[in-house]
Amino acid sequence: MTQIALQESRPMTTTPSSVRMSPRVLALPRYETGLTTADVLRRFGLDAAVKLSSNESAEPPLPEVVEAIQAAIPGLNRYPDPAGRLLRTALAERHGLDDDQVTLGNGSCELILLLGHALLDAGTTVVHADPSFAIYPHLALGSGAEAVAVPLDDDGGHDLDAMAAAVDERTRLVVVCNPNNPTGVYRSADALTAFVDALPEDLAVLIDEAYVDFVSEPDSGRMLSLARRRPNVLVTRTFSKAYGLCGLRIGYAVGARDIIQAIDRVRQPFNTNALAQVAAVAALRRSGAIVERARATIQERERVCAALLAAGEAFTSTQTNFILMRAGSGEPGAASSAHELLLRRGVIVRDGAALGCAGHLRVSIGTPDENDRFLAALADVRSLAPEPTTPGLGRVPS
Ligand SMILES: *Cc1c(COP(=O)(O)O)cnc(C)c1O
User: Fold this and answer.
1) Which of 57, 104, 133 has most ligand 1 atoms within 8 Å of its beta carbon, as the pocket-test mutant?
2) Given ligand 1 and candidates 53, 208, 243, 254, which is best to mutate, with the most ligand atoms within 8 Å of its CB?
3) Could you give phi then psi for residue 83, rounded to 5 degrees?
4) Which of 260, 313, 334, 392 suits a disulfide with 326, CB 3.0-4.6 Å?
């Protein structure tokens, strides 16, 4: 017998690690991902499903974007431009900025996290709304700072007065998600400007404008003008939603030079990849087509809202590419069973419970066909359920 017999194999996953880790990191919530289409097809034995759960664009990238990506593939043996100069310049021109007032991120989520690294320390606070975008609590926990989560107003939008009141001398950052995910509710540029005016000038305010392209109010975009002028205001935007490039991961931040420099200092040099950079430049050149797509999404949003209203459903007033609706009675159980029944019918929406809105469903706007499938499946599910007996939490648009 030789002595080289293999050791008895031990399954790695069952061996608890004795490695000492940061309690700060162990306390971080894990991002709860939604179901993929493949998950749902497998679980329910379906041939097809519509995915209305992640606020994605239902349309594939524009042909010019696909061509730009294809043309860049042979150069992938080289690192990307660490400054993303072509894209920065294109964005700066578009928004009337200098190149050093804009920086790029691997999705705008990266920029939001980087801003946390750049601004926060133990003993400081970050003020954000709740429920709002799931990444904001990570800003505090990742830096040892404290998050001050301010409940939304009754209409599902930011309670700006309460947020201003939550600011104290320890506060380094205030985050405003406008329109808010997961409620879709928009705060006007006037309201936000007054909010910023009332805050100390040395306090950074981040306006997360992931859904700005779907805002049909005439003041949409004015906060970016404010970010050009106010040294403490920063706006993040993304190519993930209206531009339909979430798979590539590319977003940007606009703000004062010193904050942009601070973000550039804490990011890794090659944070945005070569394909994302060229795709975003190509997409910006075709922004007219993107505006058309966003307009079609807004039209569909209005059509779906009208259908929900006619069916007696309650939902928040939305300026995004999604709708937050109350499920049945608004009990958490009603939402999870409606969620499951929709899944069985091949319609994937998000159970609000994972987003801090138990009792609700968040439904993205898709193509007209996809939206029809959602409405039909919902009518089918509703016919199974008893009428709601309690007044709900959702609100109908005025
Ligand atoms: C989708 C979304 C983003 C965008 O994230 P990316 O990292 O750019 O894909 C940012 N903020 C909010 C509120 C969002 O819903």
Assistant:
1) 133
2) 208
3) -95, -10
4) 392
164 CB near ligand 1 (under 6 Å): no
Residue with the smallest CA separation from ligand 1 atom 1 is 210
Please indicate whether residue 209, judged by its CB atom, sits closer than 6 Å to ligand 1.
no
CA of 239, closest atom in ligand 1: 8
H-only helix segments in the chain: 23-26, 37-44, 63-72, 85-95, 108-119, 136-143, 160-166, 189-197, 222-229, 257-266, 274-285, 287-310, 332-344, 368-384
Distance separating alpha carbons of residues 308 and 103, to the nearest angstrom: 40
> What distance in angstroms lies between residue 338's CA and the mean position of ligand 1's atoms?
26
Ligand 1: distance of its center to the CA of 182 in Å? 11
Residue type (1 letter), 168: D
This prediction's pTM: 0.92
Cβ 177 under 6 angstroms from ligand 1: yes
Question: For each of the chain's 398 residues, which pLDDT tens digit applies?
Answer: 445 555 555 555 667 778 898 888 887 777 777 889 999 999 999 999 999 999 999 999 999 999 999 999 999 999 999 999 999 999 999 999 999 999 999 999 999 999 999 999 999 999 999 999 999 999 998 889 999 999 999 999 999 999 999 999 999 999 999 999 999 999 999 999 999 999 999 999 999 999 999 999 999 999 999 999 999 999 999 999 999 999 999 999 999 999 999 999 999 999 999 999 999 999 999 999 999 999 999 999 999 999 999 999 999 999 999 999 999 888 888 899 999 999 999 999 999 999 999 999 999 999 999 999 999 999 999 988 665 544 444 443 33
